[in-house]
From TrEMBL:
The family this protein is said to belong to: Belongs to the YciI family.
Annotated PANTHER family: BLL7171 PROTEIN, BLL7171 PROTEIN-RELATED
Organism: Actinopolyspora righensis
Name of the protein in question: Uncharacterized conserved protein
SUPFAM superfamilies: Dimeric alpha+beta barrel
Residue stretches making up the YCII-related domain: 14-114
């Protein structure tokens, strides 16, 4: 069963961390990827730019309207990346989420994949 493990960034919390702690989070990502690959549960990961680099598109009266910025303006935290894992069930997905270093400072949101399609 596939799950998405969503990582969230809080710039205030990140800025409060020492350089050593920030480096530990970054190194911990590499260690998590290795762990998930070694167990055969790793599917994919993506890191995303922050809200200042995003554009939100809405359709109003049949016409597209795009605005710079986040869909949820003013939110202190934003989704900064995710992992996709293929595991035996939710309990294992939660175990893996607890291994992601970001969980010490923010939260990892765990959601089951309900549908997927690829480019092939």
């Amino acid at each position: 069963m596939k799950f998405v493990l969503q990582l969230h960034m809080n710039p205030t919390i990140w800025a409060s961390l020492s350089e050593e702690d920030q480096n530990a989070v970054i190194q911990g990502q590499e260690e998590f990827i290795k762990l998930a690959k070694d167990s055969g549960e790793f599917v994919a990961t993506k890191a995303m730019g922050g809200p200042s680099s995003s554009t939100t598109v809405r359709v109003r009266n049949g016409a597209p309207l795009s605005t710079d910025g986040s869909y949820l303006p003013g939110e202190a935290e934003f989704m900064c990346g995710y992992y996709v894992v293929d595991v035996t069930g939710k309990d294992r997905a939660l175990e893996l989420a607890a291994q992601i270093p970001d969980a010490k400072y923010t939260g990892i949101e765990v959601r089951p994949v309900m549908f997927e399609a690829g480019a092939e």
